[in-house]
Amino acid sequence: MPAAPGTVALYLAARADTLKPATLGRRLAAIAKAHQAAGHDSPCSMRHAAVSEVLKGIRRTKGTAQARKAPLLAAQVIRALATMRTDTVGLRDRALLLIGFSGAFRRSELVALDVADVEVGEDGITVTLRRSKTDQEGAGRKVGNPRGSNADTCSARALQAWLIAAGITEGRCFVPSTVTVESADVSRISTSRSL
Prior knowledge:
Helices cover 45% and strands 8% of the residues. Strands 1-2-3 form a 3-stranded antiparallel beta sheet, covered by helices on one side. The chain has 2 domains: 5-62; 74-186, hpI Integrase, Chain A, CATH 1.10.443. It has helices at residues 5-15, 21-37, 49-62, 74-82, 88-103, 107-111, 155-166, 183-186; strands at residues 118-121, 124-129, 141-146. It is built from 8 helices and 3 strands. The chain is mostly helical.
């Protein structure tokens, strides 16, 4: 250290065949941070022509569009719901799927969801996300999930049914189901009860 800009440019060129441009950008950021922490001027700054031109060339050659997964559509959610079990495991899975779909939550946000983060109102539920991938500082944000007109696809009712059936009143909302409730018992659960 410090690495010369030409060395960093050669590193980028050598890795261009095996790494995507976005990954190379993250690697550059890591190299820059390591130099900054050591008190050196960063050799991988875009102000160095050797580095910026090589990275621009790689982006032009390989493209920068990221492969994205196809979104889950409402019809697919309804088909998935039709195949779910009717016991507490099914209630949990239904609540997870509907809350995740209606709130556009990430998996990490769903598993971190706490009962205290859910406010029940007449019109549905409000979920407070304490931290997420896009909120590393933990400022938090509120996401409303309105009560649906169809009870089978209403995320608010599904969450309430799961929490009541599992006896969850505090802590994480989504935990492994240890309660065994037969389907006949589940149908009698009133989702009008508050959390």
